[in-house]
Amino acid sequence: CLMLMLVSVNIDLYCALLTLNLHMIIDIMESYKLQSGGRMPAIGYGTFLATGLELEKSLNIALETGYRFIDTAIGYNNEPIIGKVLNEWISAGKVTRDELFILTKLPCFGNRPEDVDKYIKQSLDDLQLDYIDMYLVHLPIGLFKNGKSEYSEMELDKSTDHLKIWKKMEEQVHNGRTKSIGLSNFNIKQTQRIIDNCKIRPDSLQNENHLYFQSPEVVEFCKHNGIILISYSSLGMKSFREAAGLSWNNKQLPEMLENDVLVKIAKKHSKTPAQVLLRFINQKGISVIPKSTCPQRIVENFQIFDFKLNTEDMDALRIQDNGEAGRIVRFQMIKK
Fold this sequence. Notes:
The chain is an alpha/beta fold. It contains twelve helices and twelve strands.
């Protein structure tokens, strides 16, 4: 009996320590103030290319780790699974709705003013939410589905009007469907046009941004306009690049996580190269949304707030930028 009591006490103590550690991590987790008045966590859990049971398990691990910012999109075909997990957590009292920051996006095949209501309502239904924390226009181009499932087979909508779409996005804030709105994959010229003609300014811009494609001009533009930049492909998306047959224009670039300068800095801080990359981006005031289905990496990616890169580290990483030669995702139809 004494042995059972000791085991029970040890388990309770272990669980209490885990809970305490989680609260400590969440307490030091950084966040960014939005123009709309709320705050967005500096790190979120990305769900691009994650579906099915794999996503369900990974998202549970992410939430247990402390992630509260979840990034998704209708185009990822995973909102119903995310909604199921979120509903389970909220119903069980493990998290409250206001502790979560859920971001999703208007699909490019919905880039018409008359379609915005339809697709945000679909996201709300699939995510089992009353409101979204941030709603983005996923791409600056519009497509017609015409019964197709592959983007490459869809017809380009040459009548896409960013200003009319944005006006409908603003309506979503007014009617309480989303707390904030933003853009994704827009360039400076396109974003500036929205700023010059809007009633509600974009709170965020989600674009590719990483060690080899740092786009300092976009970073500066966002800071100047009070827009929070969200980085995708922060760790190089090796598996996606290999599956899609994508590569950097500069063929001499080493695999990102194997970059000698990065590895050296990681060793100095007793951190993984991935943790240093994420911290590097965060310290420039940019939010990150790393995606992983590996439990260990999900946890490691979140543990980036207990160290800081000095000026020498930051400068050494900044000069690894390769500009356009370091870009991974190229939208051939998005050039004007």
